[in-house]
From TrEMBL:
Protein name, per record: Shikimate dehydrogenase (NADP(+))
The organism's taxonomic lineage, starting at the top: Bacteria, Bacillati, Cyanobacteriota, Cyanophyceae, Nostocales
Organism listed in the record: Aphanizomenon flos-aquae FACHB-1249
Molecular function GO terms recorded: shikimate 3-dehydrogenase (NADP+) activity
Binding residues annotated for shikimate, in chain numbering: 19-21, 66, 91, 106, 231, 259
All residue ranges annotated as the SDH C-terminal domain in the record: 252-283
Active site: 70 (proton acceptor)
Annotated Shikimate dehydrogenase substrate binding N-terminal domain residues: 11-93
Amino acid sequence: MITGKTKLLGVIGHPVEHSLSPVMHNAALAKLGLDYVYLPFPISPENLATAIAGFASIGIVGFSITIPHKQAILPLLSTISPIAQVIGAVNTVTRQGDTWVGTNTDVEGFIAPLQTTYHQDWSQKKAVILGNGGAARAVVAGCIQLGLAEIHVVGRNWQKLQAFRQSWQNSPFADQFQIHEWTELPNLLHQANLLVNTTPIGMYPHINDSPLSSQEISYLPQEAIVYDLIYIPKPSKFLHLAETQGAIIIDGLEMLVQQGAAALKIWLQRETVPVTEMRQALQNHLGI
């Protein structure tokens, strides 16, 4: 029952129709019995500043951010958390007093299934990250937080890789990862304990694509963890190939759930939120 007293949360993006955030957040809010609603707001880049000013005037409690606003939002915020500053992107904004405060829960979302499911001494492990776009930034930061011994970022375009490395120069993470061209992958995979796909290759509707071939994945050591940020299809072709080779696989659905749960805790100022209901709502929605 939505009334004039119902508090507003939401997600901004362009487009935003595909976002699954309303599904999981509204399930959590219903479980908690709170008079809140979480809505999708399609906002084009040229209207971003106007929209955020409008959000302040109507008293929105907080909102999530998806493509293409994660970096463009930065000048419109009064405070940006240290982790969001390092990554250079914000995915969660909260109204505090008369100011907007931004942070990034993607890092927490990425590392959550690694910490809760695989109790390892990460300081002895090596990670290989496929791709050097926006998603790779949170994964690099997550691997650094976990304390991995080596972090290798692999891309197909050397100029973009160099720009990726250069963009970290003023951060404390600047010297904590290495960049490599795609041709170096076979040597890197032989030593990789964690392999992460941050590229969109294999995402629906291109379900028969994979960033790596079965042969390339076979270079991995036994019991390597292969993590794909993609969650549709489930599993992706990449994860299917990895599982066939005996790897431990993680898909992007859990990252989506955990980053959302972290955001909801901030907005509601709660220690816990109903993560199980959030996950189940997404699984029901996706039919998995």
